[in-house]
Write a structure and sequence with these properties.
heterodimer, A: 402 residues, alpha+beta, DNA polymerase, domain 1, Alpha-D-Glucose-1,6-Bisphosphate, Chain A, domain 4, five-stranded mixed sheet, 10 helices, globular, B: 289 residues, Uridine Diphospho-n-acetylenolpyruvylglucosamine Reductase, domain 3, Enolase-like, domain 1, 34% helix, binds flavin-adenine dinucleotide, binds FE2/S2 (inorganic) cluster
């Protein structure tokens, strides 16, 4: 950096940094902290905020390999920085040893302080292989816990220190992945609110998501219709779309890409995702359909999906096997991983039933199964021709955070 | 708890930084580690119009051993110094740094930022005073070098002008026969101290050639005293020094008491720590003659 960098108080500037191994560009005003940027722009809500003035340690992340308070760093200072958050530490299926130890020792109760403790403990053990148990209370004093009590936390860290005399393993979830924030790009606090429509406008291009999904759905369903008929429906967007609960296609935009809308209504939750879906592979031999989609809700929830549907002949009918990786961020994250997975699985089952019906009758299904009470757009009731509808929906949930 | 809007400047040279500060006409602040400044902004206790980030200035991250001592540039982090082998030549740094906030704060906080912030309870200003470190300052009117005891003029107040930058501090290296002591009492590890002392005793041929103590958390700035005569007169044992330190306490400790400790308590604390750490410094000095 040989040039003076300047940003006016109300000016948003681009900052390039690496977050959990993924290059990211954020667009921020000078006064926006790294913590808020991680949470609001990159959807990494695992980094918590307690005091926002350096005292509690909830916001601890690694910056260039060392633990730091992300509430005391402005994002604009982080050009070129390498940031690791608790999401980078491990995955739900392959937790970092520290996460396993916290779980084993019951070192969390409400869990609010846990991301801070994990990142602080990682920093400690990564830099010192000789920490003695009696040093731990002082070494961990930079993070506060208000409910578990410190003994279990100290015991968990002591365990890992003893188990890893050569040093603690590196964070296990770093790499290129999809980062989807609550708000696209800009954190301008003075900018006029964007209209709902604008905020959730569907992009033209669909990115193939990467990294660890929020949840993965893997379902098989038995159908009575013959496999060719089912494959025919899968190949016909007009008949296929109405089979997807709550979805409608509003426009075909070429190259097997479709703009559409998916509604989710679950208890008090009502979300409308505007998005784009693209069929990236139709393999008639294997009867495989590979679709990616992404959507955003005006309230700041985002979702991406990568799904593969295969149908094959089974005794007396057809078996449908669907695998979907779902990436969720924003408020939808409140759902939690388990609920998102459950909801998605039920939706696929409904989808299979509707598909079976469409294959049997030769037309689109006229009704939806009520199981989940997924709201269906009124327009969907009409079948077929006028509006092309598709279905892609993605739903669900997101990264669990808290 | 969000900072009010401010303009941000990240200059690449000291000259540009000074120019940027001057341009703001007193409404600018230097941003170093941000560990003291950002809380102030977040609590809206201050709302400078411009922050001048000195972290990318070429050369300010320099840590060098010169003939006069260990020179620590304004962008050098406390945690880096804590683990820097060259810093072992200034033993007091290794003794004091673990008490400066927490590890997670030292990874960003700078040594010079702590001096410039001049919190009366901060450890590093007392270390700088006890060692008679020198501070390099650059402003529109040129450069100057200020000895640490003259740098601090009151609570969070120094001789720095609004458009001046502290570019480096030089800590003298330990000499043969020099021993050091450091102790503080705080409510929790990492908190600012209720009272703390830094001591330095130089021993030549078994005789105390020089004894200096600096106390922090006891007044509006570090309090430095040459106690060579006191130590020579009373001996170098903790017990023997306790009485003279009690006498001293009234002069050194003038902070008003607060909920964490009365003035009287802090005086006793000071006297106990000072006696103990002067004795410890003498012992270590005798060993390294
Ligand atoms: C929870 C908590 C506990 C803490 N505990 C302690 C403690 O026990 N002991 C202790 O000593 N400190 C403590 N601190 C503060 C310490 O962490 C800071 O690092 C230090 O006081 C300031 O250094 P900095 O580099 O972060 O400076 P900044 O916060 O960036 O700046 C502090 C002030 O100094 C000015 N400044 C900084 N650098 C320069 C320069 N080169 N030239 C001119 N002006 C400059 C700034 O304009 C600002 O006014 C604590 C902080 C927190 C949040
Ligand atoms: S939120 Fe950052 S330290 Fe409390
Ligand atoms: S587990 Fe609740 S604050 Fe620590």
């Amino acid at each position: 950096m040989t040039q003076t960098v300047r940003a006016a108080a109300d000016e948003s500037v681009d900052v390039r940094l690496t977050v959990n191994g993924t290059p990211a560009v954020v667009h921020v005003q000078p006064r926006v902290t790294l913590a808020d940027t991680l949470r609001e722009q990159l959807g990494l809500t695992g980094t918590h905020l307690g005091c926002e003035h350096g005292v509690c340690g909830m916001c601890t992340v690694l910056v260039d390999g060392e633990a730091a308070r992300s509430c005391l760093l402005f994002a604009v200072q982080c050009e070129g920085a390498d940031v690791v958050t608790v999401e980078g530490l491990g995955t739900p299926d392959a937790q970092h040893p520290l996460q396993q130890a916290f779980s084993h020792h019951h070192a969390l109760q409400c869990g609010f302080c846990t991301p801070g403790f994990l990142m602080s403990a990682y920093d400690l053990l990564a830099h010192r292989t000789d920490v003695q148990p009696d040093e731990l209370p002082e070494e961990l004093s930079g993070v506060l816990c208000r409910c578990t009590g410190y003994r279990n936390i100290v015991a968990a860290v002591a365990d890992v220190a003893a188990a890893c005399p050569e040093g603690v393993p590196e964070p296990g979830n770093l790499g290129e992945r999809t980062l989807v924030g609550r708000r696209a790009g800009d954190m301008t606090h003075h900018a006029p609110e964007r209209s709902e429509q604008e905020a959730s406008r569907a992009p033209e291009r669909v990115a193939v998501p990467s990294g660890t999904p929020t949840t993965r759905v893997d379902v098989s369903a038995r159908m009575t219709s013959p496999v060719e008929k089912v494959w025919d429906v899968l190949g016909d967007v007009e008949r296929l779309a109405p089979c997807l609960p709550g979805a409608e296609v509003t426009e075909a935009i070429g190259e097997d890409r479709y703009r559409g809308r998916a509604r989710v209504s679950l208890g008090p939750i009502r979300l409308v995702f505007n998005g784009v879906a693209q069929v990236i592979e139709r393999d008639a031999d294997r009867r495989l359909l590979h679709v990616v989609g992404q959507g955003a809700d005006a309230g700041g929830s985002r979702t991406q999906a990568d799904m593969r549907i295969v149908v094959y002949e089974a005794d007396d009918g057809t078996t449908l096997h669907a695998e979907a990786d779902l990436y969720l961020s924003g408020r939808i994250a409140q759902f939690g991983r388990a609920l998102a997975g459950d909801v998605s699985r039920r939706m696929f089952e409904d989808f299979a039933a509707a598909l079976d019906e469409a294959a049997a009758t030769g037309s689109a299904p006229a009704r939806r199964r009520a199981g989940l009470r997924l709201a269906v757009g009124a327009a969907l009731a009409g079948i077929g021709g006028v509006v092309r509808r598709l279905a892609l929906r993605v739903r669900s949930e997101v990264r669990r955070t808290s | 708890m969000k900072a009010a809007p401010f303009a941000y400047v990240r200059p690449a040279t000291v000259a540009d930084a000074v120019a940027a500060l001057a341009e703001t006409g007193g409404d600018g602040k230097v941003l170093a580690g941000g560990q003291s400044l950002v809380p102030v902004l977040a609590m809206r206790l201050g709302r400078p119009g411009t922050l001048v980030d000195v972290n990318a200035i070429a050369g300010l991250d320099e840590l060098a051993t010169t003939d006069v001592g260990l020179r620590v540039g304004a962008a050098v982090r406390q945690r880096r110094l804590e683990h820097e082998p060259a810093a072992r030549a200034v033993p007091l740094l290794g003794m004091a740094l673990p008490f400066v906030g927490h590890r997670e704060l030292r990874s960003r906080g700078t040594v010079c930022g702590s001096l410039a912030h001049a919190d009366p309870a901060a450890e590093l200003p007392a270390v700088a005073c006890c060692l008679n470190a020198t501070l390099d300052v650059t402003g529109r009117r040129g450069n100057r070098t200020v000895p640490a005891p003259e740098f601090f003029t009151g609570a969070m107040t120094t001789v720095l002008e609004p458009d001046e930058l502290l570019t480096a501090v030089t800590f003298p290296l330990a000499r043969a026969g020099e021993g050091f002591g450091f102790a503080e009492v705080a409510r929790r590890h990492g908190d600012f101290a209720l009272a703390g002392v830094v001591t330095r005793v130089r021993v030549t041929d078994g005789v105390v050639a020089e004894a200096v103590l600096a106390a922090f958390g006891v007044s509006d700035r570090p309090v430095v005293r040459d106690v060579t005569d006191v130590v020579r007169a009373h001996g170098t044992e903790t017990g023997a020094l306790r009485d003279p330190m009690n006498q001293f306490a009234a002069d050194v400790v003038d902070t008003a008491g607060d909920a964490h400790g009365s003035t009287a308590y802090r005086r006793r604390l000071f006297a106990a720590l000072a006696a103990r750490e002067l004795a410890a410094a003498y012992r270590k000095g005798s060993e390294t003659q």
